[in-house]
Design goal:
7 helices, single chain, mainly alpha, about 0% strand
Length: about 160
């Protein structure tokens, strides 16, 4: 791989750092980070999507709070691993990735997804005991679940598309 692309100084410095060089030169390091990144995204998006489906009304007999105790730590752990591995992948090719508009859209969607989580926990989640099981979730929770499912699915999709644009 040749890495003499134009970009911000910080991206060039990151790309030409010892870590960036190591990621590009080591035979298995970049592929291992890439596979781990994909697995982390699968764990995160899969658990978020299952939780969102429950809030949308699927399997209404399952208590939302109990499902959250199972799925949300998986989502948070997947997100943490995805951030670390994504940063490693970015380091290997920082200027090209930074100049890719798909990457910028992905970052915007991640911000939107995180904001949606904060709003969800500040508003509908505070009264989850009232809609925990066997009743429809309140409209703000359902709206947040649709936003969540769409944003995280789009984020994962854009992440895979970065290599093609």
């Amino acid at each position: 791989m040749e890495h003499a692309g134009a970009g911000p100084a910080w991206a060039l410095a990151l790309e030409h750092s010892a870590l960036g060089e190591t990621l590009r030169q080591a035979l298995w390091l970049y592929p291992a980070a890439n596979v781990l990144h994909v697995l982390a995204v699968v764990a995160m998006v899969g658990s978020i999507f299952a939780f969102d489906l429950r809030i949308m009304g699927v399997a209404r007999s399952l208590p939302v709070a109990a499902l959250a105790r199972l799925l949300l730590p998986i989502a948070a752990g997947g997100f943490a691993v995805a951030v670390v591995t994504g940063a490693l992948l970015f380091t290997a090719d920082a200027t090209a990735v930074w100049n890719n508009p798909v990457f910028v859209y992905k970052l915007v969607l991640i911000g939107l997804g995180l904001a949606n989580i904060v709003v969800f926990h500040l508003i509908p989640w505070r009264r989850v005991a009232r809609w925990d099981a066997d009743v429809p979730s309140p409209a703000p929770a359902v709206a947040g679940a649709f936003v969540s499912a769409g944003v995280w699915t789009a984020t994962a999709t854009l992440g895979r598309l970065i290599a093609y644009f």
